[in-house]
Amino acid sequence: MQFDLKTTDDKSKARAGVITTDHGTIETPIFMPVGTVATVKGVHQTELKNEINPDIILGNTYHLYLRPTTTILEGAGGLHKFMNWDRNILTDSGGFQVYSLAANRKITEEGVKFKSHIDGSTHFFSPENVMEIQRSIGADIIMAFDECPAAMSSYNYTKNSMDMTHRWLKRCVNHLEKVPPKYGYNQSLFPIVQGGVFRDLRKQSAEFISSVEADGNAIGGLSVGEPAEKMYEMTDLVCDILPEDKPRYLMGVGTPINILENIALGVDMFDCVMPTRNARNGMLFTAHGTINIKNRKWADDFSPIDEMGITFVDTMYSKAYLRHLFASKEMLGKQIASIHNLGFYLWLVREARKHILAGDFSEWKAKMVKQMDKRL
Amino acid sequence: MQFDLKTTDDKSKARAGVITTDHGTIETPIFMPVGTVATVKGVHQTELKNEINPDIILGNTYHLYLRPTTTILEGAGGLHKFMNWDRNILTDSGGFQVYSLAANRKITEEGVKFKSHIDGSTHFFSPENVMEIQRSIGADIIMAFDECPAAMSSYNYTKNSMDMTHRWLKRCVNHLEKVPPKYGYNQSLFPIVQGGVFRDLRKQSAEFISSVEADGNAIGGLSVGEPAEKMYEMTDLVCDILPEDKPRYLMGVGTPINILENIALGVDMFDCVMPTRNARNGMLFTAHGTINIKNRKWADDFSPIDEMGITFVDTMYSKAYLRHLFASKEMLGKQIASIHNLGFYLWLVREARKHILAGDFSEWKAKMVKQMDKRL
Known about the structure:
The first copy, chain A, is of the alpha/beta class.
């Protein structure tokens, strides 16, 4: 994997770059649509590629491990072939879902024992087997196995957890050397900075993670319930420590405004379920604010969903029609809203990139943040 | 509306024709995908047009009247504009849903009082207001308001019901003359032959319906639980009476085999929820039989969904992938199966038409019926 930093903004720490992997290039900043269990919910691969057009999507190791299972994924020749997606994929380590979804989890130095949220069956994740699982899935970028402590964890809990995450990272790196990629292309391991909302822990973690000299680095444990200002403070601090010549990935973030603010702090990569999950609940993101399409006020608004027309759904369907589909609990409503929101998120990061390259990112960002901070 | 009968098969009563309306031509025999409430469930209008490619779809008056309501549809300029579908639409009369879905229905000579299956609110359908509702919806082909008796209704109930349906038809015809179309294009009323499974009633009804000299004629009250042989017997009898120079529409039928058998008896138009409803339950129709994609046997079958590749989903996704989506209860599974099944149904009627025109329909039909009558 290669990362070319094209430019850094004068008035902020925003960067524009290009990541190159065996599955092609990724222009940064980038937003990665979440394809939890080998599907971006409600979106055909054709629509994902031709309409939303991301250079990379994300899959969830925890979900893919449980279903379809690594046996099936290996039979298919990896996740790319299984789901018919020939661009880049990143998989998380499964850690976050183990802590948020699985039942009866027990964390020890060795790893995490947990019960499946689907059938209650018992499983065990360790740094070693999570690396093996990610080899079987075959994503281009794979994540180190970490512990992601809850938002309100104490200093001591967070510190001990961070130290263990660092020890686990070494085990991940060591084990990957023993288990080569399965499908003839490279996989890059990204380690994860932890440390909660504590400045000294974040600093320690960022320094340790930097010392590993990985192809790219991630910031985890944010956007888990802390105030946005605290998230920005931590991102700011960590980005100043992480190497400049490697991409930085802020995990699980966030609203369109969160994304622009974090781009300004030096983050290159994002993922979040928000555009698709909120879409399924009838919430649309637009350049001029958010729309709750279930609201009665849209019932006779026959204007296009979004005049901007980023994806085909925006001008093909009216607000009244989409509102009717949600009122009638029709699948097509969720499908339309998902494509719209993902199209908008990708438009947003692409526009950010254009403005970084053009040198007017900060002015544009200030205008957009103001403009998007409304309910229509 | 115009109907040009192109050819009739030598060895059966199968016909190939062309219907021309203000929204374009419809090549018959045709299958009409069901777009219940202004959406063919799980299918984008782009996919419907470009992949499945029917000349006409069906909407349900009962559902559209309750949601989005005729007020909204009029505001949009009719159903075509509301859902952005510029080809033909047919609406049923709402009768069938009132009998099958609504609660506390009370049928009198005047009409039917019923409670909405959504919120229990009370409504009244009469031949007159159903014509007005269908004017507001604005389909190209609209259906007379009829009573569709249950499958096991007695001779006397069926006879009385049929006589009332005939009286209602006159009221429909009279009222339509007073209420002109709303959107600048014509709407053709199709009356409906009833009479249950009783030969003399079906004959009487077909004769009465023929005497109205409508643009086209429908056969209702079949495929409601009677044996397939009984349905074929009734269709056969009725098609011999209905005028040859008008299209014949068999309502709510059926399996791919039912469709081929009824084409052989002289039916030109079909609609059924089966391809989409069964799709959502994981049942796929193919030229070589049906597939229950939820079955474990498909879990590691990485071959395309359907080698025939009628629509893009058939070769883009594998059986194993589709099976995984159903196992994981992912929306995309229903979307894929719906496009596949509708694509197959449309392929089937188009192939039937080709073979009628080529003069080898009967041989082809015999081969297909045998071939499709399997579980894969």
